[in-house]
Amino acid sequence: MTTRPRRDQAPRPFLPLDARRRRSDNKRVSAAASLPRRILGFWPALALVVGNMIGSGIYLLPATLAPLGANALIGWGVTILGAMALAFVFARLAAKLPCAGGPYAFADAAFGPVVGFAVAWSYWILVWAGNGAVAIAVVSALGVPFPLLASGAPAFGTALVLIWALVAVNIRGVALAGRIQLVTAILKLLPLAGIVVLALWLLLRDGHAAIAANPSVPIGAGAVAGAVALTFWGFLGVESATVPADKVKDAARTVPLVTLLGTALTGLVYVLVAGTITLMMPADAVAASPSPLAAFLGRSWGAGAQLIVALFAAISALGTLNGFILLQGEMPWAMARGGVFPAWFAKENRHGTPARAHLVSGVLVTLVMALNYTGSTATLFAEIATISLAAGMLAYFVSALAALKLLAGDRAVTVAAIIAAGFVLWMIYGLGLRANLWGLGLLALGLPVFLWVRRAR
């Protein structure tokens, strides 16, 4: 008679199919033999999902979306629908495969190591390139109380200090990173709740006079698609709990739950806050502000409130940066354990974290910042956000297809996966030709790496 493992006991470490055929190659997968400790409980895992999504997007996107008018609100609605479909797909896949790597593990199990590598490589690019944009969001918010940080070399230097400080935190240990994530997730909700309360008070006091008289913008499929592509930046991280699933307690239950609950909570916050800014502030003022949410509160509560909200915005984006820096180290580590990335990345330090993967990812974030730091923070944010999204869309699309294969026969999953796949394709269209060409180019850079690793084996 077999004995079932306790719920809090870590299962056998996951190795993708191709790697399991070569488990005897100790040189290639040097860290596969040790079981990772289950460190993240329900609340830190939920904070990872919510904290990674609610971050820079809600503070910077209103300025980017202001010229689109009502198309932006429609875009938010479509994005929330697509994000919930993706969340359902990731939740069901995580319940079936609660293992390290998230999208990479799902793609490898469904389609093999070649597709698995392509997904992991594109997702890794999405994360470390996107972290450059998140760091810019932190600095942009700090630019309200400290105007010197609004652009140029001071903004660049401050962003790098923040990036490397959080790289050090994540190298020190997942537990510490999880505690920081939980604290920042709680703090970031406070000013957002204040905005909703103020909006309700203004509507009750002034009625229709509280609505800004913005010029009408024609509704168009292209404009809505562009808004969807940008607003999904605010939902980037829907899969966050699936990537370090091997470090989550009772992952088969916790990861699906926090993925769905976190996405729903995030969608509710975005509807309330984005709707408030779009309807109650002049579009030109929103577009010109480095921190539109701070500007909204500042109009009613004075400059002091504006400065406080700007600091909370910086804390919010800092929490998102912390969460995604965790992921940017976990993904190459999972790839190396699976045999599709150099085994050098699978090495852990004495704290049980992939220090080498974190250091290389940190260098890559630094490079993308160095190549793009000139100009305003809003322009830089939009540039990096669109290119990193284009690079990472493959991970979301293939995850939807993996659900259709691995969970065939489940009608609810089939419907959600089809919606999610269609949503991702529409986002790819909305990102535009230039961003997608950049994304394809970055994906192609992974081919020599994959061929080199395969040849070395």
From TrEMBL:
Short name of any one Pfam family annotated for the protein: AA_permease_2
Membrane-crossing residue ranges in chain numbering: 40-61, 73-93, 105-126, 146-170, 182-204, 216-236, 257-281, 301-327, 357-374, 380-404, 411-429, 435-453
A GO molecular-function descriptor: transmembrane transporter activity
InterPro entries (UniProt xref): AA/rel_permease1, APC_superfamily
Keywords: Cell membrane, Membrane, Transmembrane, Transmembrane helix
Gene3D superfamilies, per the entry: Amino acid/polyamine transporter I
Keyword Lipid metabolism: no
First and last residue of the signal peptide: none
Membrane topology reported for the UniProt record: Multi-pass membrane protein
Superkingdom of this protein's organism: Bacteria
Compartments, record wording: Cell membrane
GO CC terms, sorted: plasma membrane
Protein task: Major component of the acid-resistance (AR) system allowing enteric pathogens to survive the acidic environment in the stomach. Exchanges extracellular arginine for its intracellular decarboxylation product agmatine (Agm) thereby expelling intracellular protons. Probably undergoes several conformational states in order to translocate the substrate across the membrane; keeps the substrate accessible to only 1 side of the membrane at a time by opening and closing 3 membrane-internal gates.
Entry's family note: Belongs to the amino acid-polyamine-organocation (APC) superfamily. Basic amino acid/polyamine antiporter (APA) (TC 2.A.3.2) family.
Name of the protein this chain belongs to: Arginine/agmatine antiporter
Organism this protein belongs to: Sphingomonas gei
